[in-house]
Request: fold
Amino acid sequence: MINKLVEKIKKTNAPIVVGLDPMLNYIPEHIQKAAFAEYGETLEGAAEAMWQFNKGIVDATCDLIPAVKPQIAMYEQFGIEGLKVFKKTVDYCKSKGLIVIGDIKRGDIGSTSAAYAVGHLGSVQVGSKSYLPFDEDFATVNPYLGSDGVKPFAEVCKEHKKGLFILVKTSNPSSGEFQDQLVDGRPLYELVGEKVAQWGEELMGDEYSYIGAVVGATYPEMGKVLRKVMPKSFILVPGYGAQGGKGADLVHFFDENGLGAIVNSSRGIIAAYKQEKYASFGAENYADASRQAVLDMVADINGALENRE
Amino acid sequence: MINKLVEKIKKTNAPIVVGLDPMLNYIPEHIQKAAFAEYGETLEGAAEAMWQFNKGIVDATCDLIPAVKPQIAMYEQFGIEGLKVFKKTVDYCKSKGLIVIGDIKRGDIGSTSAAYAVGHLGSVQVGSKSYLPFDEDFATVNPYLGSDGVKPFAEVCKEHKKGLFILVKTSNPSSGEFQDQLVDGRPLYELVGEKVAQWGEELMGDEYSYIGAVVGATYPEMGKVLRKVMPKSFILVPGYGAQGGKGADLVHFFDENGLGAIVNSSRGIIAAYKQEKYASFGAENYADASRQAVLDMVADINGALENRE
Reply:
C-alpha cells in the first residue's frame, strides 16, 4: 500500500491528504436540514448529514488528491450510526480510487492490538469464513505501549499489504509534556522515531517502509531531525493550515526527492467555505470551495518544495 | 462515579473488575453453534455469540463484583456488528447495577479528544436534542499527547460525573521501552503519574479523584512508588492471573485503608472453564466456572491484603 501511495502522489503531484473530520458545525445548513427532515434530529440524522457532506467533498476533490484521512472520533461520537458512516466513507473513498488513512490512534497490547489490527486493516475469522470489517489502507497507532503494541499491527500489515503511521511528535501545544522529555540528552520523540525506523526495516516496500510516522507541521525543526532518524519512513504531517503550519515550514519533512511526506489538512479544506478567502463560494457550493482550497494547498507546498535551498 | 465505585467495592468487599474481552476461542462451542445456526458464520453471528457469552457471565457474577471492563477492541474487530454488542453489553451491565469501565485507550487532541469523550462518557448534541452514544461510566485514556489530550475528557467527566483511568505503566513486557526511560533520573511513568495526580486534583470526589491511573500488576515495585505519587488516584490494575500477577504482588497498589485499587482479570475469569482447576464445570457451565474464579480471586486478594505487614 505504501508503493501505491507513492505512485498516487507522483500521479497527482499532490503530497497531501484531506482530513474527513466532519464536525456538525462545519456542515452547511442545507445539508443538515435535509438530513434532519428525513431522519429527525437523531444520531442517524447527524450521521446522514456527515455522509452527504463527505460525499460532496470527495466528489469535488478525488481527482486532485491521493488520499483521505477520516478521523474516526468524529464518527464515533455519534455512536453506532456515526461508525456506520465512517465505514461508508471508507468504502466510498476507495471506490473513487483514493487511499484511506484511518486516523484511529489505537494502541494496546498483544491479542488486543491484534484485534484492532484485524478490525481496521485485516480480516477477521468467523468459523470457516473471513471478513474485512473496516478495511482501511493505513491506520495511525499510538506507541506508548512499546513494541508489544505495534508488532501485532505490523503483522497484519505484512499479510494484507497495509500500512501504519506511528505517532512520534504530535502537532498540539502540549505534545512536549512527555514527547520532548530528554532521555540521555535526546528527546523521547527521537527514541520513538528510532523505533519506528527499526520496526519499519522489517517491512519495506519499494522505496519506503510500510511503517511511517506522524510528525506535526507545527514543529518543523523536529521534522528536520526526524527525517534523518527515519530515512525510509513516510511522514504524515498534521497541523497544516488551521493549526498554524505553512508550506515553507514543511520542506524539511520531505526528502531530497521531494517525497517521503504527506501533509494533512482537515478544517482548512473541508470547512474552506467558512474562511473569508473562500466565502464567495457560499455554503451551497462548499465542495467547490474545498476544491479550490486543495489547489491552493498543493500550490503552496509544491512552491515551497521548488524554492527550497 | 468514583464515589459510586468506592461504595460498590465496599459493599461487595471485592476490589476487582471482570474484563469482558470475549475472544471467539473463549466462547463455548454450544454458544457459537447456536449463534451461527441463527445468523450463519457472519459478523452478526460472531457478535451474537459474544453477547450470549457475556450475558451468561454477567448473570453469574453480577452480585459478587462492583464493575466490569469490556475491551472495545474485541468488539471492534467484528466491525459495526461487534460494536453494537459492545453497546448492548454496556447497557446490560448497567441495568444489573454494575459500573462499566470502557477499556477504549483513546487519546487525541482538542476537538478530537472531546469527540471521543462525548461519544463514550458524555452526551452529543444533534440540533436541539442530545444523546448518550455509548455511555460508559469510566474510560481508559492514553497520555502520550499530553494535557491537550486529557483535558477534553476531564471536562466531560466533570459535567457528567464520569471518570478516567490514564495509562501510566502498562502490564506488557515491552512497556518499559518508552515508559521506563529515565528523565532527570526518574522514569517517564513517574512523570506521567505526577501529571495524573495534578489533573486529578481539579476533579475530586469524596475520597478519590475522578481521574485514576492504569498500572500493571506485573510491576509491583513500580506500583508501590506510583501509589505514593498519586495518593488520590484510584489505580486500575491489569495483568492479574493470566499475565502473571498474583494477590501478594498487589498489596502495594492499595492504600492503608485497603482501597484505592481495583484489579482486573479477563481471561482468568471469563475463560476459567478452560483451566484445569475449573475444568470439572464443563463448557456448558462456563458461567459457573467464572463465578468460582471470581470467588477465588477475591479471596486471594483480600487474603493478601489481610496478611500484609
